[in-house]
């Protein structure tokens, strides 16, 4: 099963804030999202330092089992639908959405104003709600849940480190059940480690 059109990739913004733009081979062929190599470049972009940044990691719950039960073609279709739903969520921040790895997606949010934990919790719940409606395939209704990890930083640590920490939290939450949600304030965590 092939998806002919690409999902929208990011909200209109000044492209000079990002490392790579407009290069078609930097898109994931299945989902139409930017690929991991673009994320790796974007998180090293000098224009991002000193800005409020949020990394939102979204992983579909138990997707390996889903792929085994329904087959890779249906799994690929569901990944493309998931990407489309993720990019359709209205946000008040500049953002980019990437296919990070398999069933894992990353949204990078950029803002000049502080982002509080409550706003991120709302965004994370919005993401879970956007992915919750079933996907109709022939006579089946496929329902998915996802785990969302959002990490906030004001540039006190390299974004690659923040991304790695978000991934660590996301991986650890897989074993706590489906539909997990975690907000990580990376700057506060660093201060706590420095004081402790």
From TrEMBL:
Q: Which Gene3D superfamilies match?
A: 3.30.70.270
Spell out the protein name for this chain. Answer: GGDEF domain-containing protein
Q: Which residues form a coiled coil?
A: none
Q: Where is the GGDEF domain?
A: 51-186
Q: What is the lineage of its organism?
A: Bacteria, Pseudomonadati, Pseudomonadota, Gammaproteobacteria, Oceanospirillales
* Taxonomic source organism: Oceanospirillum linum
What GO molecular function annotations does the UniProt record carry, in alphabetical order?
cyclic-guanylate-specific phosphodiesterase activity
Pfam families given for it? GGDEF
